[in-house]
Design goal:
binds NADP nicotinamide-adenine-dinucleotide phosphate; globular; about 350 residues; 17 strands; alpha/beta; seven-stranded mixed beta sheet; Rossmann fold; single chain; 11 helices; binds zinc ion
């Protein structure tokens, strides 16, 4: 076994503390990555807190992983030691169902294997990127450009692909009015993609203080959702709303902002069910849809697009010892716009 070190929550809702653990040996189809940086996603906080389901503890969160490959198995074709590489939210899937065949491993019909807080196909717990090294099948590893800032690319592996994939799926582009609801880790990437794809982008935010920053990200308009006049002024104006909100919220309020035939795309994952009155959908032929991360092929496409267009995440580097305060600030919506753990501080 490979000796690894990281930070883990030993039980739900407790602070993360240093923890030594073991990774499997590098198999013939595996790649070992020396992790350099790992982004801090709100999903990490949800899972450490058991918001969604009872988790597997000790839990080493982290699914926005970048680093350098240190070892490859005998049958690995795509990578060699020394290459920069990334790992996102998935480390395995059945690889033969209709969805896997269609490069939609995130919707694997037999169930995908998340990077942490899951059991792998041998029944062993998976541990994420808040650690110094990881071993992953090559099919679930992506190439990372050496042209962009490595730390700022880490969040592309989850926040990036989770917002890129739905905008591509719904073909959001020139002539469309896109609203991004919630300007956090996912939301700020949604703004960057929306602008790059040619849509008119409006940020819908509870935080008036984010206005200037939203403009700097390229957003064309900014609406403070708590301001009644501002909220009223955008009724019936959007083709799409990309909902990245992590906390329970009233989706019905936002459906009124859509044009006829508009689509409310849910990517945020609050623990409570969304309430959608039939009348809000029927009057205006509106849709509420959802989207989960993206497949591996699309993740590579997104990273290549990012390298070509010089798009990275806006980050604050975080020391491992400061994870608890990082989580607190994330919960308050006070991150510009993604914390990234620097493995040098482990
Ligand atoms: P984040 O950085 O904390 O951003 C969430 C933003 O939502 C906040 O910055 C805030 O923006 C807004 N917000 C928070 N509480 C709110 C409330 N009560 N009402 C309205 N707005 C509120 O989180 P993140 O990492 O972007 O993740 C967002 C959500 O997406 C999480 O639930 C996460 O688990 C989920 N997620 C889903 C996928 C997927 O595949 N679908 C992948 C990754 C993450 P303002 O200050 O602008 O209001
Ligand atoms: Zn995530």
């Amino acid at each position: 076994m490979i000796q690894a070190k990281g930070y883990a929550a030993q039980s739900p809702a407790t602070d993360l503390t240093p923890w030594n653990f073991e990774r499997r040996e590098v198999g013939p189809h595996d790649v070992q990555i020396d992790i350099a940086f790992c982004g801090v996603c709100h999903s990490d906080l949800h899972q450490v807190n058991n918001d969604w389901f009872p988790g597997i503890f000790p839990m080493v969160p982290g699914h926005e992983i970048v680093g350098r490959i240190s070892q490859v198995g005998d049958h690995v074709k795509k990578f060699k030691a020394g290459d920069l590489a990334g790992v996102g939210c998935l480390v395995d899937s059945c690889q033969h169902c209709a969805n896997c065949e269609a490069d939609l491993e995130q919707y694997c019909l037999e169930g995908n294997t998340p990077t942490y807080n899951a059991l792998d196909r041998s029944g062993n717990p998976t541990y994420g990127g808040y650690s110094n090294t990881i071993v992953v099948r090559e099919e679930f590893v992506v190439s990372v450009s050496d042209k962009l800032d490595l730390a700022a690319m880490a969040p592309l592996l989850c926040a990036g692909i989770t917002t890129y994939s739905p905008l591509k799926h719904w073909k959001v582009g020139p002539g469309h009015k896109l609203a991004v609801l919630g300007l956090g880790g996912l939301g700020h990437m949604g703004v960057k993609w929306g602008v790059a794809f040619g849509a008119e982008v409006t940020v819908l935010s509870t935080s008036p203080a984010k206005k200037e920053a939203a403009r700097a990200l390229g957003a064309h308009k900014f609406v403070v959702t708590k301001d009644e006049a501002q909220f009223k002024a955008v009724q019936g104006t959007f083709d799409f709303i990309l909902d990245t909100v992590s906390a329970p919220h009233d989706v019905n309020e936002y459906l009124g902002l859509l044009k006829t035939d508009g689509t409310h795309i849910v990517v945020g994952l609050p623990s409570e069910a969304l309430q959608v009155p039939a009348f809000s959908l029927v009057g205006g032929r509106k849709s509420v849809a959802g989207s989960s991360i993206g497949g591996i092929k699309e993740t590579q496409e997104m990273l290549d697009f990012a390298a070509e267009h010089n798009i990275v995440s806006d980050i604050e580097l975080l020391d491992f010892k400061d994870i608890a305060s990082g989580y607190e600030r994330m919960l308050k919506g006070d991150v510009r716009y993604r914390f990234v753990l620097d493995v040098a501080t482990l």
